[in-house]
Specification:
The chain has about 230 residues and is of the alpha/beta class. Helices cover about 45% and strands about 10% of the residues. The chain has nine helices and five strands. Strands 3-2-1-4-5 form a five-stranded parallel sheet, with helices on one face. The protein is globular and about 60 Å long. The protein starts with a helix and ends in a 26-residue tail after the last helix.
Amino acid sequence: MPTRAEVFKNLGLDTVIHDDTVVFVCLQTLFKLTPDFDAVFRNILERTPTARLLFKSFRTKQVAQRLLTRMQATMSTVYDRVIMLEGLSEVNWYGLLRHSTVVLDSYPFGGYTTSLESMSAGNTPIVTLPHKLMAGRCTAGFLRILGIDDTIARDKNDYADIAVRLADDVDFRQGVEAQIRTNAHLLWNRKSTIAEWEQFLEEVVAGKSVTNLHIKRPEWRRLRSKMHPQG
């Protein structure tokens, strides 16, 4: 895995991103970036004056250009700190997920594979705002498996507040990083999920009232530690 300096040099960003630069990344497919969330990105960048926000381009360049044209209008006060990345290699992809300051999940269509890859690449905190539909709830589900509630936002303002706090509050950020690092293994090979699907399907076939598994107290919650590292 390349170092932080090597990643941003490989991307041609070493002149604008330095060791102390706050780097927000939202590496979701561009069609997930809806216009009404531009204000949230703008709010975050306005409150972190030296930060950069990185997106990854789409295979059809017209899509990326349309997004940038839109953001030039909706995020005019911070647009000079928005960067669209072209064609990331696997090494740079995982390096970027590992060495960024904060990963921003998209809304209302949130992450799944990208969120999992971020948690497997390193321990970079992820901010997410769950939607009422399943497509916008996956990242929050992953975070809850890790015992992390503090980066799951209640609304758009809270999302921005969390992102800014992660950028500014080193103790808070290191606490979240430690939680991911300690509990990331809980995401993989979860045999309990098989049993939960079996229970759900059997109850549906039998015409029974389906058990709400979300209110059960799973084993992983016993592993939760304080969000701040021990001093």
